[in-house]
Write a structure and sequence with these properties.
The complex is a heterodimer of chains A (about 290) and B (about 240).
Chain A lengths: L1 H31 L6 H17 L5 H24 L7 H23 L13 E4 L2 E4 H23 L1 H11 L1 H6 L4 H23 L10 H15 L4 H21 L8 H12 L11
Antiparallel strand pairs in A: 1-2
Chain B lengths: L1 E12 L2 E12 L3 E5 L6 H9 L6 E6 L2 E2 L5 H7 L1 E4 L11 H8 L7 H14 L1 H5 L10 H14 L4 E5 L7 H16 L3 E6 L2 H7 L2 E6 L2 E7 H6 L1 H8 L2
Parallel strand pairs in B: 3-8, 3-9, 6-7, 7-8
Antiparallel strand pairs in B: 1-2, 1-4, 4-5, 9-10
Helix pairs in contact in B: 3-6, 4-6
Bound molecules: adenosine-5'-triphosphate and magnesium ion.
The site of magnesium ion has 5 residues of chain B, from helix 1.
Chain lengths: ~290, ~240
């Protein structure tokens, strides 16, 4: 019983990070229909910026995350302006190739700047606490709490503010959005910024319990794609639910089957869910 | 004084010329109708006015300002709002949210939004009854009302209405044209594209007839009604 609870909390922790990363991916997909493979590189850069701000600039963990959010958000916007915007009228395959190109470029750049070593990120929240009879590190509690707070804030922003609603409007009907006076270029910029920020938050939260290295985005981005396919491409609730489904399945699977197969679980889940619901759980998209 | 003067307007999709040297003049307070068969060029004219398509040649002057080639959002801010033929609603948003998005350019003026919402709900009470429903779940007629309501929320000076009667039951069509007349009486100038020439000419001040991307006849509604060719082609009597 205690083991199960421990694993459920583990699932909640990794699920929270998956959801954050998948949300950024699904928002971008929703408005531009680009599967942004480079999202994994944003995640990786997010981890490094936070780490560097802490070790080289001596910033507190929380401040370092704020810097990382801004830097990665702007990097994401730059990607939209320099690559995806100019390609907007080209055949879709060019977006995909370009996205993979950016991914490889940023990874090589990270290796050049910061080396190929696996690095440990320190955290001021290393202490162990007892909650409901479970022994947890404070960092894990912070991952869950911060991720949920970010998601609630994002939901409020998208649903309750005019500016946030423009993202949903553009995802549901691009020309309709233009015809009510929304500047679709600005919406694209805003969406890429949010996606970058979410990737930076996800990476910065999870790095103290994982490691920082140039390829750290690979598995995460693959899983984020699985999540948004499971949840329905472009669906916001789908990305959140999908992230947690995967998080729980992985941690339970690792305990009761074998942790060797942990990373395959995502793809098994993908096959099972798509056989039942080929369009994903929230097949209509939007939100 | 004309609110809208279109002079020598040509627009293309890639290499294909869709409309050629179109001239249209709309005076403040008028209802002006664009008539023409499928593919004649009515919607292309609207898309170009709204900035969804860049003009290849010619001028579009709105209140003394050249607007040809401006971005769609700038054109809405200037006061031209289009209600497109496929309605372009936000299908998973509620009816009320769609209307709110229509007021996007007035987002800082909460008082005015409230007032516009009240007016739209009075004009189309069904939209108030269905305010919580997803736009995509409405019937065709209700969606058309929502599209017009959403356009009204922007408080347009000039409203472009692209085939509002398409696919609607005859009874609803009649109601729709009454609503359009009402909107016009309240002070909105209207440019209307229609295939239903009879109904459209009965509420319009004047009209332009398109054929293969060109305007072939224009005149007052009375003139067009009595024009032999127009009668034969579009009124069927
Ligand atoms: N997106 C497009 N790409 C290429 N050609 C187009 C496009 N849209 C319209 N056309 C062509 O431009 C011409 C004018 O079309 P348009 O839609 O303006 O006609 P319309 O008068 O609005 O017709 P309808 O009454 O059917 O709506 C047609 O020959 C049409 O095939
Ligand atoms: Mg048309």
């Amino acid at each position: 019983m205690e083991l199960l609870l421990q694993q459920l909390f583990n699932g909640l922790t990794i699920g929270s990070v998956y959801s954050l990363v998948a949300l950024g991916l699904t928002l971008v997909y929703g408005i531009l229909h680009i599967p942004n493979f480079a999202h994994g590189a944003l995640y990786m850069v997010g981890g490094y910026i936070t780490l560097m701000m802490m070790t080289n600039a001596g910033l507190h963990y929380v401040l370092a995350i704020v810097v990382s959010i801004i830097v990665v958000g702007l990097l994401s916007v730059l990607m939209e302006r320099l690559v995806f915007h100019p390609l907007r009228d080209s055949p879709p395959i060019q977006d995909k190739v370009a996205a993979i190109g950016i991914l490889l470029f940023l990874e090589a750049l990270a290796q050049l700047l910061w080396g190929a070593d696996y690095r440990q990120m320190p955290t001021p929240f290393g202490e162990v606490v007892n909650v409901f009879g479970l022994t947890l590190t404070l960092q894990r509690i912070i991952i869950v709490a911060a991720a949920i707070a970010v998601m609630i804030f994002l939901y409020w922003f998208l649903k309750k503010t005019f500016i946030g609603s423009t993202i949903i409007a553009m995802a549901q009907n691009r020309e309709g959005a233009a015809l009510v006076g929304i500047n679709t270029n600005k919406v694209a910029i805003l969406t890429f910024f949010i996606a970058g920020a979410l990737a930076a938050i996800g990476a910065s939260l999870t790095s103290p319990i994982n490691l920082v290295f140039p390829g750290m985005g690979h598995l995460v981005i693959l899983k984020a794609f699985v999540i948004i396919i499971i949840g329905g491409m472009g669906s916001i609730p789908g990305a959140i639910l999908g992230g947690y489904i995967l998080g729980f399945t992985e941690s339970i699977g690792a305990t009761y089957i074998s942790s060797d197969y942990k990373d395959i679980i995502a793809f098994v889940l993908l096959i099972i869910i798509l056989s039942a619901k080929p369009q994903g759980i929230f097949s209509k998209g939007g939100a | 004084m004309p609110v809208l003067s279109i002079m020598g307007l040509t627009a293309k999709y890639g290499k294909y010329t869709s409309i050629k040297e179109v001239n249209i003049e709309v005076i403040k307070g008028e209802i002006v109708v664009l008539l023409g068969a499928n593919g004649a060029g009515k919607s292309t004219t609207f898309k170009t006015i709204s900035g969804l398509l860049k003009p290849a040649a010619g001028e579009i002057i709105f209140n003394d300002e050249q607007i040809g080639g401006k971005q769609p959002d700038k054109i809405v801010e200037l006061g031209i709002v289009q209600c497109a033929e496929d309605r372009k609603l936000f299908p998973q948003m509620s009816v009320q949210q769609n209307l709110m998005m229509g007021a996007y350019v007035h987002r800082r003026n909460k008082g005015q939004i409230k007032q516009s919402l009240k007016e739209v709900n009075e004009l189309f009470p069904i939209l108030y009854d269905k305010r919580e429903d997803a736009a995509g779940s409405l019937s065709g007629g209700q969606q058309q009302m929502l599209a017009i309501g959403r356009a009204l929320m922007a408080k347009p000076k000039l409203m472009l209405l692209d085939e509002p009667s398409i696919g609607l039951a005859p009874l609803i069509v009649e109601q729709m044209f009454k609503s359009i007349e009402h909107i016009n009486r309240e002070g909105t100038t209207i440019l209307l594209a229609e295939q239903n020439a009879n109904a459209a000419l009965s509420i319009a001040d004047k009209g332009y007839v398109y054929e293969n991307g060109k305007i072939v006849v224009h005149g007052s509604s009375a003139e067009l009604f009595s024009n032999e060719e127009v009668r034969k082609a579009y009124i069927g009597a």
